[in-house]
Amino acid sequence: MQLSVIGCGYLGAVHAASMASLGHRVVGLDVDEARIAMLSAGETPFYEPGLDEILKAGLASGNLSFSTDYADAADADVHFVGVGTPQRKDAQGADLTYVDAAITSLLPHLRPGVLIAGKSTVPVGTAERLAEIVKPTGAHLAWNPEFLREGFAVKDTVDPDRLVYGVADDTRDEDVAILDSVYASILERETPRLITGYATAELVKVSANAFLATKISFINAMAEIAEVTGADVTQLADAIGHDVRIGRKFLNAGVGFGGGCLPKDIRAFAARAEELGKGESVAFLKEVDEINLRRRQRIVDLVVDSFDGQPFGRRVAVLGLAFKPDSDDIRDSPALDVAVRLKGLGADVVSYDPEAMKTAQRAHPQLAYAESLDAALEGAEAVAILTEWKQFRQLDAAETAAKVARPVIFDGRNILDPADWRAAGWTYTGMGR
Ligand code: UGA
């Protein structure tokens, strides 16, 4: 099929390249000329495993192209909208400027019967509003949320655990048939497909993220209790996780969640619920947010305490800057936030991340960035692991002790074996263990 993908950020660029890899002819559109030039040259604007290969293959096959001109999308049968919906600068709600602009720019190029499939995460009610704007053109609108995780984005796009089509009642059969054609190869594997109305589809997305955020904050709340009782939150998570109704995934306590989705989505959801007069229904999300943010300060306090409250000029190696491993994304990253807070307190912070050094440097040029993991460790008087990269998980306690000035480690992601590290002479502190 002929597809367009509006917005070539994490979601859109991955979607465009993935759809081309499924055999569709795809044009990716973005207003950012530099980004389009990069993608057209086969360069990925961010680190995402597997994207490079399908981007290059798509361009080489002629199935994939990129443009800043909406006229190049005019032949598409389906227009996917994958632009960002960041948190508003002045409030907790979502900023819909980019979604609105995408629809407005598409309007002159729409033909009767083509489908716009929204993928961006939007406040419930958005699709209904946009459908009214699109109606006079004879084009249809569906909401088809995306559940990809960074670091697994390509796999999650071509092999999702479910597909959700939010469609209008009056064009339901036609629109479902179009989306089924787009995802034919995915549906062949009997991937669950749910057909809903607009509001349900929009809510599926935000409630999934709200649930995941709540799960993480739940275990971090248990970490807070573990810290004052001598319990071990990792053992606790293992034990409750054996109950299949609870499940072990997303029960890793640490410095909490960050990224371009979970934090802003729970805030936008709470703001939208307020508008709907149902703020109390998701009031707990404010608590979820607060528990999450407290964990960042907790590790800062632990580091400062290790210097008897005097961190000024003390060397701290911060390992990890990305909000999660296998990503160079630093949006609302707990790791970067902790590095900045420690630096703000006068500590001599030296950071290292396998992929996110460039993105972090652009956002925070005032921080010091080590060229290698070893360089970050050299002379450190405290080490804080803040992103669970494999490289950090595999650190050898004895070898690492030989590199630092003072063997004091803060395991902000609970990825090390405390007994091993203590046996090698380290003062080990995890989060809630
Ligand atoms: C999240 C959702 O997991 C995806 O399903 C969703 O599609 C996506 O947002 C989105 O809305 O686009 P992502 O932001 O890539 O995906 O990151 P997650 O894997 O959810 O991790 C979020 C944060 O939670 C990370 O900072 C991670 O370190 C943290 N986390 C995760 C924990 O602190 N503990 C855990 O047990 C799991």
Rounded average pLDDT? 97
Biggest sheet features: 6 strands, parallel
Give the proportion of residues in helices: 40-55%
Beta fraction of the residues? 5-15%
Number of domains: 2
Kindly name the structural category.
Answer: alpha/beta
Order of adjacent strands in the largest pleated sheet: 3-2-1-4-5-6
Count every helix, treating DSSP H or I runs of 4 or more residues as helices.
Answer: 18
Mass-distribution shape? globular
End-to-end distance: 53 Å
**What is the highest CATH level, the class of the largest domain?**
Alpha Beta
Ions, cofactors and other bound molecules:
uridine-5'-diphosphate-glucuronic acid
CATH H-tier superfamily of the largest domain: NAD(P)-binding Rossmann-like Domain
| CATH fold label of the largest domain | Rossmann fold
Q: Tell me which CATH architecture of the largest domain applies here.
A: 3-Layer(aba) Sandwich
Topology, number of strands: 14
Spans of at least 5 consecutive residues whose pLDDT stays below 50 are none
The radius of gyration computed from the alpha-carbon positions, rounded to a whole number of angstroms, is 23 Å
Topology (SSEs and partners):
Elements: E1 2-6, H1 10-21, E2 25-29, H2 33-40, H3 51-61, E3 64-67, E4 78-81, H4 97-106, E5 115-118, H5 126-134, E6 140-143, H6 153-158, E7 163-166, H7 172-182, H8 184-187, E8 193-196, H9 198-229, H10 233-241, H11 262-275, H12 284-306, E9 315-319, H13 334-344, E10 348-352, H14 357-363, E11 368-369, H15 373-377, E12 382-385, H16 390-393, H17 397-403, E13 408-411, H18 418-423, E14 427-430
Parallel strand pairs: 1-2, 1-4, 2-3, 4-5, 5-6, 7-8, 9-10, 9-12, 10-11, 12-13, 13-14
This protein binds uridine-5'-diphosphate-glucuronic acid (UGA).
Uridine-5'-diphosphate-glucuronic acid (UGA) is lined by residues 121, 146-150, 209, 212, 216, 250-252, 254, 256-259, 261-262, 323-324.
